[in-house]
Design a protein that fits this description.
By secondary structure, the protein is mainly alpha-helical. The protein has helices at about 10-25, 30-50, 60-70, 75-95, 125-130, 145-155, 160-165, 195-210, 230-245, 255-265, 270-280, 285, 295-305; strands spanning about 170-175, 180, 190. It folds into two domains: about 10-95, Orthogonal Bundle (DNA polymerase, domain 1); about 125-250, Intergrase catalytic core (hpI Integrase, Chain A, Orthogonal Bundle), CATH 1.10.443. The termini are far apart.
């Protein structure tokens, strides 16, 4: 069960760091308050991740998974940069104090400020990624069918990773070609699903999920080896590992598939409002970022369809 309050150890880390920031770094009260909010949220994330039972077990991938979640929540680049600065300062301090045995945050870089343009995969990269779980290179073929179903479904629907984690079997309306999704604020929406994703998810259900399911499974669609629902970190690891197997050089995350889904739809001529509805964006502004990705495509569309071009 997720905790909403820091444990005593993490409270001590945060208190010691904030005292250091005030007494030795002379941080202003406003900066300290911002760092306190950012680091409380970060430490809660680490505390709730099974793959990071202690802060000393955290990895740069754990930190990137946290930053991806911030991006999914809609934080601007400047806010994410402040979070990174806070995290790097905390890890540097705890390492210097010999509280932590290593500083895993030193290689986590600041994003470039300005308009955020998400990483998008080409069609060739998508196909290689989707094929990766069933490849002979996969060292864990036992879960290949599940991982294949995850990748197919996320690319087919543009789900947020938080939505994929909570997806249940009863919300698969495959006969009608939809899934029911509960997004931010528990807002419900119906998202179309293509034939390929439906076929792979059904195969996973009948050939693997039935063997993974146990008393802790409830009705969650995607399960781990213990029959429990996968965590966000598990989704992140599945996608990153398969991207490496597919020899994709880009730095990708579960959100990359969401960006790619939206971009490929728009490049194919989909209406912006329709993509907004499928993504579950409350305003069109959040969706408009995708219209800035492929300027060649926009120029070509303008010259093809505008009567005065």
């Amino acid at each position: 069960m997720k905790t909403t309050e820091l444990n005593s150890e993490y409270k001590t880390y945060l208190r010691d760091f904030l005292n250091y920031a005030k007494l030795e770094r002379n941080f202003s009260d406003n900066t300290r308050d911002s760092y306190k909010r950012d680091l409380t949220r970060y430490l809660l994330f680490i505390q709730n991740e099974r793959q990071c039972p202690t802060l000393n077990d955290a990895t740069s991938d754990c930190i990137r998974a946290f930053l991806n979640e911030l991006a999914e929540l809609g934080l601007e680049s400047a806010s994410i940069s402040r979070n990174i600065s806070a995290i790097r300062s905390l890890h540097k301090f705890l390492f210097a104090e010999k509280t932590l045995s290593r500083n895993v945050a030193e290689d986590v870089s600041l994003p470039k400020l300005g308009r955020y343009l998400p990483t998008v995969l080409t069609l060739d990269e998508v196909f290689r990624l989707l094929d990766a779980p069933m490849s002979e290179k996969n060292p864990s073929p036992k879960f290949a069918l599940r991982d294949k179903a995850i990748l197919e479904l996320m690319y087919a629907t543009g789900l947020r990773v938080s939505e994929a984690v909570e997806l249940t079997q009863q919300n698969l309306c495959f006969e009608a070609g939809f899934i029911r999704v509960f997004g931010k604020g528990s807002k419900e929406r119906l998202v179309p699903v293509g034939r390929s994703a439906i076929e792979w998810v059904r195969r996973y259900q009948t050939e693997l999920r039935v063997r993974l399911a146990g008393r802790h499974s409830e009705d969650y669609l995607f399960l781990n080896a213990r029959g429990k629902k996968l965590t966000r970190m598990s989704f992140y690891n599945i996608i990153v590992e398969n991207a490496k197997r597919a020899e994709i050089q880009k730095d990708i995350s579960p959100h990359t598939l969401r960006h790619t889904f939206a971009t490929h739809l728009l490049e194919g001529g989909a209406d912006l409002r329709a993509v907004q509805e499928m993504l579950g964006h409350s305003t069109i502004k959040a969706t408009q970022v995708y219209t800035h990705i492929d300027r060649h495509f926009l120029k070509e569309a303008h010259s093809t369809f505008h009567p005065r071009a």
